[in-house]
Amino acid sequence: MAHNFICNSETAIVSTTKGKVRGYCYDGISIFKGIPYAKAKRFQAPCPVEPWEGVLDATSYGYVCPLLEMGKPACELLVPHRYWVMNEDCQNLNVWTPACDREKRPVIVWLHGGGFEAGSAIEQIAYEGENMCRIGQAVVVSINHRLNVLGYCDLSDFGEEYQNSGNAGTEDIIAALRWIRENIALFGGDPDNVTLIGQSGGGAKITTLMQTPAADGLYARGINMSGVVEGLLPDCEGSGKALVQTMLSELQLSGVKELETVSYDRLANAYKKVRPILAKEGKYCGGAPQKNSFYLGNPLKYGFRKETAKIPLIVGSVFGEFASFVAPPYDKRGMTKAEAEKVLKDALGNEAVEQLLPLYEAAYPERLPVDILTLDYIIRHPIQKFVRMRAKVNPKTYSYLFNYEMPIDGGRTPWHCADIPYVFHNAELVPITQEEGITEKLEKQIFDSVMAFARTGSPENESVPLWPACTPDEENTMVFDRQTRLRTNHDENLVPLVEKYMKIYLEKAGIKSMENVQH
User: Fold this and answer.
1) Distance, CA of 181 to CA of 47 (rounded, Å)
2) Most buried residue among 134, 160, 388, 477 by CB atoms closer than 10 A?
């Protein structure tokens, strides 16, 4: 069946506050790509773009932020990627809308993953906003912004123009949200109903925005997917003076102004070389938001700002996260419970298994014991704390866990990013998601929950069981699986114990980290 495509001088034209933009229509959806929302000199705060004459072509994706490292092909079956043209002029966004009218549809803003160092608005194939827009009848926006040494490097000791360079990437995001506030009604969206969704580093960006007063009023709610990353993405504190001086020495430059014009490759290579040295010394080394008067710090350490008390949140993760990127050295097909227990005992020892197994079987009765070896604690443990803290200040705090056994290698626990295709209603774009009788049902449950939350601030809908909000004493977690169900405090005691014994196991095995995986 042929698709309907229209691109001409009369279709998908919008007059933004800075000038006209032209996108294109595809099967009834108007799509705009690469719209500039700001501009900035290196290390400095973003400024509004200058108005333009005529009509700006918005049919091509804009530049993405230069990366410190180019990804190598790996895990592409699990998480399909695409890479794009890199340039520091990367403050641009993409919009998918059912119609450029005044209907005031819910607005969903996607914040990409990759920590605060990598990724882009289009990096994963599953980030495509067309299905979410069409099926959910929402206006979908994805954002590019500065990252790594360009977005998070403190030069404030060297001039007023660098006052908040340690948070320049977050300032870009806020500039994009201001653009959305000013323009999204022209694209058929409701500026008072903006839902932020982010995964991994994108989820961490939502937390960062909540702790940043300058972002207040620019969003209504948030969905934080695998983004409570205490320990993985710690705040930067203190001065970046030593970092900057060390980079100047490495680059053989005489002054900070020269850092503005040195090539990105030279800057990035110098940064990569000196950062580990400063990190070992416990000094500021950039690459993440800097706690200061602009950004008030991680709420797990400093508490949630009272100004965000009315912001509903969904917070969740997947069963295996980083551990599940690596195929296990055993085949679960046909494995009995006794065989699974033996594998577990060989890895962790009898004492650990005796303590873990009763808690695990109560939490995950549908899983074999051997899956304890991939049960995530790196993200799940901080989420347990985060949700309970958040529930004390907001009665609309919801928890989820993606537990679907992915159809590869005889069944593998889900990995970091595995839930993204379902959130975007893009399972059709990711082959690994396909399982007859399961894919459509699970996608509907997750997508309908996302859209219900975007419309009302509650994820409850007819496709899932009753989903009450969490309280300080009860984490009511919707476990998305073949049989989706609600569980209360199901892994409260299990996860800390898994963390204890898995750290011992990994140390003995000589595995220093499970999170350093390309995703």
Assistant:
1) 16
2) 477
Residue 511 is predicted with a pLDDT of: 66
What's the CA gap between 409 and 338, in Å, rounded? 20
How do 189-199 and 313-318 pair as beta strands? unpaired
Strand-by-strand arrangement of the 55-57 sheet? 13-15, 20-22, 55-57
Measured distance CA(12)–CA(14) in Å, rounded = 6
Token digits for 128? 């495509």
Query: What pLDDT is attached to residue 512?
Result: 61
Residue 269 phi/psi, 5-degree rounding, is -65, -40
Nearest to 170 by CA among 81, 85, 94, 235: 235
DSSP 378: T
H helices of 349-468, where? Answer: 350-363, 380-393, 420-423, 439-456
pTM recorded for the entire structure: 0.96
What six digits make up the tokens of 18? 């800075």
> What phi-psi label fits residue 60: left (phi over 0), alpha (psi between -120 and 50 degrees) or beta?
beta
DSSP secondary structure, 32-68, as one string: EEEEE--B--TTS--BPPPP-SSEEE-BS---BPPPS
Question: Which residue positions in the chain have pLDDT lower than 50?
Answer: 515-518
DSSP string covering 460-495, please? --TTS---PPP-SS--EEEEESTT-EEEESTTTTHH
pLDDT value at residue 328: 85
Encoded tokens for 483 = 């049989």
Asked if residues 314 and 207 have their Cβ atoms less than 8 Å apart, the reply is: no
Q: Is 431 exposed, middle or buried (0-12, 13-18, 19+ CB in 10 A)?
A: exposed
Structure tokens at 403: 């537990």
* Short-list 442, 372, 378, CA closest to 406: 442
CB 145 within 8 A of CB 91: yes
**Looking at this protein, which amino acid is placed at residue 334?**
G
How are beta strands 20-22 and 13-15 bridged, if at all?
antiparallel
